[in-house]
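Q: Please design a sequence for this.
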């Protein structure tokens, strides 16, 4: 059974900002970004324990085609998405948010 996704407010903001940035670069690129992020969410839901822990109980899944990482915590049948971070950003920034 696939896990249910729950989004932290900050993660929703991350997605919106990344979509907007990509869409401003080229019309339709934001939609392609969302499609790749959604595919990553589906992989996480099918196998939440698949990705390694990278900080305390937080796990990281990489988005295909776009340099983004999704940080999440599985808990039973629920997966909470805490951030969708560009991988070139300072790692201390996502660690700070995950505290």
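A: Design:
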């Amino acid at each position: 059974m696939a896990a249910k996704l729950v989004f932290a407010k900050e993660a929703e903001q991350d997605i919106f900002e990344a979509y907007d940035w990509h869409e401003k670069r080229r019309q339709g690129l934001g939609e392609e970004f969302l499609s790749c992020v959604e595919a990553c969410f589906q992989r996480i839901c099918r196998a939440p324990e698949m990705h390694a822990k990278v900080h305390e109980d937080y796990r990281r899944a990489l988005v295909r085609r776009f340099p983004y990482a999704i940080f999440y915590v599985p808990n039973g049948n629920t997966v909470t998405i805490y951030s969708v971070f560009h991988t070139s950003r300072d790692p201390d920034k996502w660690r700070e948010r995950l505290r």
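Q: Thanks. Anything notable?
A: The chain has one domain: 4-97. The CA atoms of residues 19 and 72 lie 19 Å apart.
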